[in-house]
Amino acid sequence: MLFRQLLTGRAAIAVSSAWLVLGSQAQALTTSIAQGKTTTSSSISGPAGYTWCASENDSFTLPSTCDVAYGANGSFNYQYGKIGAIKFNNATFGDPLFGTVKAGFYKLSTVINTNLALGKTTTTSSTETAALTSANAVDGSAATRWSSAFSDPQWIAVDLGQTCAINRVVLRWEAAYGKAYQIQVSNDAINWTTIYTTTAGGGGVNDLTGLSGNGRYVRMFGTARTTINGAQYGYSLYEFEVYGATDGNHSPAVSITSPIANAVFTAPATIKIDATAADSDGTIAKVEFYQGSTLLGSATSSPYSFTWNNVADGSYTLTAKATDDKGASTTSAPVTISVGTPVVVKPATSDTPFTIAAIPDSQFMVSSQQGGTPAMFERQIQWVADKVHDPNLNVVFVSQLGDITDNGSLQWQFDNAKNAMFKLDNLVPYAIAPGNHDCMVRGNLDYSLLDQNFLTSKYASQSWFGGTYQANHYENNFELFNVDGMEFVIIHMAYNPSAAVRAWASSVLNQYPNRRGIIATHEYLPVNGGPTAVGTSIWNDVVKSHANVFLVLCGHNHGENTIITKNDAGNTVYQFLTDYQNDNPQTGRLRTYTFKPGQNSIIANTYATETGLSSTNFTVSYQMK
Length: 625
Description:
By secondary structure, this protein is mainly beta. It contains nine helices and 37 strands.
């Protein structure tokens, strides 16, 4: 990395020395071309198409907006889109050729020297860090840059705000540059036309002139990165400049007004899509409505709307594309909606409260660390057992959230765990969502010793035991239990469940769509925000698409956290983290969730079995009657 930093420093110096800003829009670029020859100052041959106008150190008043050049021997410095008087010397242009008599040249401007990308809105395939955003590539500064993820392909695109005739693009690379890339234009940021391709990019300043293409959006699409000292980094640009001429036609404005973002419909759905569209210098020719890249329909007059019929279950992204009378188009911001099948769950037939107990990471009690002892864990579980018939709590299920041991390869720790957990046998349904410490080698997902101690055959005879992902492997399991007319399914997934395990969990929920769903797993939420990467995979693959899931319980990260999110069906999902293993000494804290059907609420309470201290954390609403 030190090598790259040194290269980066040199690249920054090289770029700044070739980048002299003269006025608000002028750019001076050093460009060598194989034309011209030295004679006398007044007869030096200039670049093709340019006319001699001044000897060295002379000034010349330009007749119109012009491109100007200064130099000799085929080496010239250029400025584009200049007007008025200009002096042709080293101070103005830099010295293109040391020790040689030089001259100035001009021609009517064909490359308008307005950087059309400056300060415009950008999008990109990725960013290396939060500080290296795509906006840095259009801020006009040589001190900031955009950098992508370290993979191919990657891209950066700029929205010019209106259709332009593109004739030049300048890429100012950092040391990590694109070796192979394309310049593309588009009117809708969906369909792209390539106007330049290279497989031999050399980094530095790539001044790409003579381009020809029309579009509102311009994109650098990189397909291969350079190698630096044997390593490849991302695509890294100090500046992404675009030059050309506007066609005088401003692009229309368009937005979807209905449905609103995250709206939820019941399948089969009828969805009316409404949009507003306006054109500041013309008229709207049509508005097209899309789901993803699929055209649903169009409207040619206001009010602009389309009715989409018989929409099946799923999540959909809608956009509207407005085209004006001169062919310019704009695509609206996307609106995501979801369509689901209504879930019918049985209501409570009684107002009697009942409780689900969540037992967080118990590893330090089981292993006699941090002031914990196995006897503490036994007292914690005994307290729960005593509340099974307590009318105030009425514990109906116990979920242990993983790391029931500190070292899953040590039998004596499992013996301590069983001495506590087996107090619940034949008293109340319970299950474990094994953690990373419960593996034979921490985090390797080998739960062979756990499987030998918590035998699936032990639970198979219980009416509430639903099954496991794999035969004779307890670590991924599910249970079914009923309370006063309400029916529940709870799935326990081990730490960092694989895609196959997540698919299995989803299939269990598909099997029981009319049971109220609960997910218990070891890692899901961090202490702040969330979910974690593991939790996100569970949310995406298991939770969000199942309308009946309302609760996620987890441990692993030391502390508490609560997030509340809507699933694809628009139903609320409560996600709770509890892990008190950092108590020193251990206090036996656990969490109870007491359901009160008569109040349609769930009360979360924390209780420490070693100190007797209790606190009500919060109450949430949940429809039961």
